[in-house]
Records
---
Amino acid sequence: MNLLNILNNKETKKLPIWIMRQAGRYLPEFRKLKKESKGFMNMVYNPKIASNITLQPIKRFGFDAAIIFSDILIIPDALGQKLSYQEGKGPKLEKMSMDEMLKKLSIKKNNKKLKLVYEAIKRTKKKLNKNTNLIGFVGAPLTVSLFMFDNERKKEYIKIIRSYNKNKIKIKKIFNLLEKATAEHAIGQINAGAEIIQIFDTWAGILNNNNLNEYSIKPIIRICNIIKRKKPKIKIIVFPRNVGKNYIKYINKNIDCISVGEDIKLKEIKKIQEKKIIQGNLSPKTLFNGGNKLEKKTKEILRKFSKKPFIFNLSHGIMPGTPIKNVEKLIKIVRNFKNEI
Ligand code: CP3
């Protein structure tokens, strides 16, 4: 309950910690299950496997929260843009033009694939003790849409944004559809047992000041408004990666916590923490490298932020190949810290 307590501004015994991509390739038990499951898609769409993977880092490290093993790209898949996974290359969505998307993509009621995620959440919830919170998640429309248009994985995101600005009416329709589907998927996860929703906007940092409002901040707030209208008690964490001095613009009554990267000075984060709960911001590279620097950086973050509501996390997902002993060391430092104050 530490995590949910913090998000509810209640006292906690321990400072909560979980890490993005905590169920992933750095874990030998994940790699083993992946081999046995014949690929990523079979893991995502198999509730038993997805639930087992979700629980792996909880069993090993005792994090304060489990995040359901899934992917942000299942939304376009559910809307009708087929998702596949190429080993070594990552996820790939079927190639579609803007016009084809407008013609072919739609929300299907009682979507079978999304139900598999809800099934995985129900299974996981039964196995978690009440001290460990369950996080559901979605991708923000901007980040999801960039993958929808970048089928070759060229990462020419600025070019894609230019095409959005040239086709405002069409892109608005696509974003509307994504917002609705994303909010519904978040609500589906909440109904299945998720207690917190994290919204990932991994690519928000590529936008300039004008575009940021239109393609990241406003769509995220509209999604939060829909979720909170139906589920007023649910807590929402927003992660607009690499937006630097613009994190502060995400402060909103329907956003409970802002997850910050390492692209912002600690004293700037402190200003945000005056108004909103903060999550972050240890570099995954620092965790990967371990040693004295890991201890120094972790303690610096703890000293700066632990006196106000704060969730310890990384600035982005844990890197494959991160030594298990470094994760153990990190948890030990965080767990022991309260004693030092
Ligand atoms: O955090 C967790 O433990 C929950 C699981 C989770 C996954 N994807 C599983 C996954 C979460 C929260 C995501 C979100 C996600 N997926 C994002 C946003 C967050 C971020 O990290 O930026 C994005 C952009 C995606 C799309 C995606 N999925 C990419 C670009 C890739 C390939 C790159 C990579 O990290 O391998 C994936 C694959 C993926 N999603 C893996 C996992 C564990 C790796 C699968 C494997 O090859 O073993």
---
Amino acid sequence: MSSVIGVIGGSGLYTLDDNEAAEPTALITPYSDEPVTVFTSNIASHNVVFLPRHGSSHGTPPHRINYRANLHALAECGIDFIIAVNVVGGISAQMSPGTIVIPDQIIDYTWGREHTYFDRLEKPENHIDFTWPYDKSLSKVLAQTTLSLGLPLKSGEPGGVYGCTQGPRLETAAEITRMKNDGCDIVGMTAMPEAALARELGIAYASIALVVNWAAGLTQETIAFGDIASTLDEGMAGIKRVLLATIADL
Ligand code: HPA
């Protein structure tokens, strides 16, 4: 059966369509005067709606992204589920640069972001269950595809706690020590409130994340984001293969 699949791309993944043939559509939402631009294409007989999280010119930093508008726009496209792509720093020992992680948990350290559609509680269900923030079966499919392509998914299955920080600055060494003590395996800036808004909308959501650096204080070096380009390019090429193969198998 053909599905409508939402893919949210982050740093390093600005299109799923190498031929640039995807159709742009600007969608107005109740959450912004600015339209949200999505790119629609047909892949393996599925309708794929690609949303560049940081905007079509890639310039919106994580704390300024209008997550509510983005997710609302995807919902308007009638998507059946969302695969999100994230770029992260590695905290736990096995999360070395180049590793792929399909996280199964989140700790939210962000603040001040518009993070809910339920600013007025209309029913008890507005308190969404978020015990497991990622869709387990979609995560499993992503993990199986990653492994079948021979790509480096640590532990061979979904798992890992994503600590989401506010950004855009990177963390201090002490913040990373604290996050490690809290149980975070990876650190990024974009998982939240995205994952929670998808749950509020009732849309299954999973993430595939690429580790591009050791988090602050874990090596002797300071973190130069400009220097991670080759890890990012190579890793994202792998993630794109996972996305396309997953879509083809659905
Ligand atoms: N911290 C936060 N976000 C990130 C990092 C990091 O070290 N690397 C990539 N995204």
